[in-house]
Amino acid sequence: MNRPTVFTAYRWELRKLASQKRTYIGIGAAALLPVLFVVVMAFQKGGPYDAPLGHNLRHTGIALALVVLTFASRFGAQLVTALVAGDIVATEDAGYTLKMILTRSLKRSQILAGKTLAAFTYVLALLAALLAAGLVSGLIAWGYNPVTNLSQDRISATHALGLSFAALGVFAIPLIAVAAFAIFLSVATRNSAAAIVGALVYALAQEALAALVHLDFFKHYLLSDQLDGWHGLFQTPTYWTPVVRAIWVSAIFTAVPLAAAFVLFLRRDVAGE
Amino acid sequence: MSANGALPLEARGLRKRYGHVVAVDGVDLTVHSSDIYGFLGPNGAGKTTAMRILLGLLRPDAGTARLFGRDPQHELPEALDGVAGFVETPHFYPYLSGRTNLELFAAFDGGDESGRIDELLELVELRDRAADRVGGYSQGMRQRLGLAVSLLRDPRLLILDEPTNGLDPAGIRDMRALIKRLAGEGMTVFLSSHLLAEVEELCSRVAIINHGRIVYEGALSELHASATPRYRLRTTDLERARQICAGEASLRELAVDGDELTFSADEQTVVGLSRTLAAAGLGIAALVPETATLESLFFQLTESHAG
């Protein structure tokens, strides 16, 4: 018999996620949001023209997903991420399945690594659903036309489409950091509700701090600021500083709670029912 | 003994404390190859805590455990090679079917055991319900699925916590028959139970734990042999017989039970007593030795060590 690997744990975590309704509710909500946006705009004259790329709405469908993302980045994306990542270990505690899987041939580190990768994959799936639904509904409503970027320069629809994929990638990095903190809470509290609420409070507290503190130096190194890092891609020339900062600041915000989660998970007792 | 000469299960001085409560306190266990080893104790005696330590789920404050010579505290998952089982009720993913749960556990052991899964579903009589979600299973069905999940690993040592819990009478009979069969095929079985009749029926060796401490460990037959025999005595004059018995220094636990006396004594004392009764002119209607049941021995051991 071969030893199972991290990939074994990852594959089965994905299969477990795919078997639960909650998974589809999150992805469905991400896909529904751009469609609702288009419907609401069809019934009113105004729009979120002050939002980054918002002035493109009604002229091109390419910008829709990113405008929706701006609104989702304030609360919704963190909520859906926390719902899955905060639950991914704690649910095994609550369902008493942890004692079952920990007596098989996988190492504890492999089990947690599989769960972590699955939670991160879910974040990417969430954003992919939002982008796909945003592009389809945006293109149907407003067509495949050039975009005016944040420097007020016109860029081709195809270039903007490529940048949209890159922007989603940059946005995913701080969102993964939120997922990492939710996983840490899931391990530490052994309680799904506490982990989900705790991760949300963590994300919103950074938003609140960023709004209250007027020191740019401090603000730029909060996780909330990194959710806007993709804006640098839509400037001429490309402003790399916020993009690069989003990567390394988020990496720190990911590594620290994940390291703590692994230390706890490897050493913890699995106590009784 | 295993190929490397190590015992299937060996624990020395296991100790685990939760705050002020000492759950297990210096537990020693020795399980030999092909034993069906019973782990007995009242609720809260420390059985499950000890079993969790043996499976590497809990870290003891002191002591060592070895499974086929490997330490489940420091050598996981390798220490569990050849070992399978569960503590407390087995639990599964309720939104997955019984078969998918088995596939998951097979994958977590590094195998793709589709043929074996069919065989085990048949063995635990769940083949007809294999496609149903486990969320709809009864406790007895989950218990049987737990056994199937354990047997997936083709263990040489099977650790079971109250394996007949939640089973109906036919299920209990079948489970016991299966455990006997597995042991007959060379598997070592370590099972906890509070059902004394079950242990008496299945086990060759036992450990009795009370308040976290082992109060007996050894062969069941030796436990029976170590007990001072009890006797029932019926004579033609109960009160006179009671007075004579009370005068025998080596006779213990004298009691009146209806028109009979009961007491503990060794054989020599009983021979002497029968002569004394005859010399006093009493007719002996019955003087019957009683075999000590595991239940009476269990209560003697756990209640005399109480507190």
Characterise this structure.
The complex is a heterodimer of chains A (273) and B (307). Chain A has twelve helices and two strands. Chain A is an all-alpha fold. Chain A starts with 5 loop residues before the first helix and ends in a 6-residue tail after the last helix. The model of chain A has no long low-confidence stretch (mean pLDDT 91). The model of chain B has no long low-confidence stretch (mean pLDDT 87). In chain B, helix 3 packs across helix 4. Chains A and B meet through helix 1 and helix 6 of A and helix 1, strand 5 and helix 2 of B.
- Total beta strands of chain A: 2
Largest interface: A-B, 31 and 35 residues
What integer value in Å does the Rg of chain B equal?
Answer: 24 Å
Q: Give the strand line-up of the largest sheet of chain A.
A: 1-2
Shape of chain B: elongated
The percent range for strand residues of chain B is 25-35%
Low-confidence stretches of chain A: none
Would you tell me the overall average pLDDT of chain B? 87
Question: How would you write the strand order of the largest sheet of chain B?
Answer: 5-6-7-3-8-9
The protein's oligomeric status is heterodimer
Largest sheet of chain A: 2 strands, antiparallel
